[in-house]
Design brief:
The protein is elongated and about 65 Å long. It starts with a strand and ends in a 5-residue tail after the last strand. It folds into 2 domains: 102 residues, ORF SCO4226, nickel-binding ferredoxin-like monomer (Alpha-Beta Plaits); 161 residues, Nucleotide cyclase, GGDEF domain (Alpha-Beta Plaits, 2-Layer Sandwich). Helix 1 crosses helix 2 and helix 4 crosses helix 5. The protein is built from 8 helices and 11 strands. Strands 6-7-5-8-9-11-10 form a 7-stranded mixed beta sheet, sandwiched between helices. Helix content is 37%, strand content 26%. The longest helix has 21 residues. 37% of the residues are buried. By secondary structure, the chain is of the alpha+beta class. The mean pLDDT is 90.
């Protein structure tokens, strides 16, 4: 059965209210042949997202309408592996402590930071150093990046050959992870001046369901474009990262606006200050 992720806009949204609506969905689901797997709630943005197995989109709309009247504004078809990679789960979180009320079970917002890394000049590196040596250097990139992801609660979404796409629930952790990765490469280069490795990183943040019928579609596209635009040893981030960052904003420096492929308007861009001291 197809898998869908839907988005609801609800004013004055509360965790308790959405938990109650989810329970009502579960009661009515068999009537329409659907299965509500889990949900995410973003109180700050007045949005909630439901993950549903259903024969079609209309069955989801009808079941929501009868259960509580909150009909989704968008519904996109998704793959379970991608949902789990980006969002971390495809089922309701397990209650660890007995007696915990349903509405108090930790449910995150679904808002994610997407990070792309790219090992600069990896193609020419293969030509100059040969397949064996260049593969060894790619393994070093993988190790540095994956170690940082593990330490900063990041999830690897996809390996891209000469880079990695990752997802973070925490803005602060995403920025810290990017800095950790660049510092690891800088330390490595200090000890290996004969064959240094230079990385580019791009970050953007957004909601899982947008208006392009693709999971994190525009968010992923902009993060990838920023990574491709970055210079060696640079971290570029979008306005959404700066706006939602709760740490010291002085870590960002304004890089102006740039025109990127696939985007009609110029995009504000910021550099992350990370240089070794």
């Amino acid at each position: 059965m197809p898998l869908y992720l839907d988005r609801h806009f609800i004013e004055h949204i509360t965790r308790e209210g959405i938990a109650d609506a989810h329970e009502k969905d579960l009661v009515i689901q068999d009537k329409y042949g659907v299965k509500f797997l889990t949900y995410w709630i973003d109180e700050a943005r007045c949005t909630t997202f439901c993950l549903v197995e259903a024969p079609d989109k209309e069955a989801i709309r009808k079941s929501h309408a009868e259960a509580h009247g909150a009909v989704p504004s968008e519904i996109i078809e998704v793959e379970s592996s991608k949902v789990e990679a980006f969002l971390g789960r495809i089922n309701d979180p397990v209650m660890i402590e007995a007696g915990v009320a349903w509405g108090r079970v930790p449910i995150d917002s679904g808002f994610r930071v997407i990070m792309f890394t790219d090992l600069k000049d990896s193609t020419s590196m293969t030509t100059q150093l040969g397949d064996k040596k260049s593969l060894h250097l790619l393994h070093i990139h993988n190790a540095f990046t994956r170690n940082a992801l593990r330490d900063h609660e990041g999830r690897e979404v996809k390996h891209l050959g000469d880079g990695i796409m990752a997802s973070f629930a925490s803005m602060a952790q995403a920025v810290a992870c990017a800095i950790t990765i660049q510092k690891a490469f800088a330390t490595y280069n200090d000890g290996h001046p004969e064959a240094p490795l230079h990385l580019r990183i791009g970050l953007n943040a957004g909601e899982p369901v947008q208006e392009d019928d693709d999971l994190f579609g525009a968010t992923v596209q902009l993060a990838a474009r920023l990574c491709a635009h970055a210079e060696a040893d640079q971290i570029l981030v979008a306005q959404s990262v700066v706006d939602n960052y709760s740490g010291d904003a002085s870590v960002f420096s304004d890089a102006g606006q740039i025109t990127l492929k696939g985007f009609v308007q110029p995009v504000p861009v910021y550099r992350v200050k990370w240089e070794q001291t």
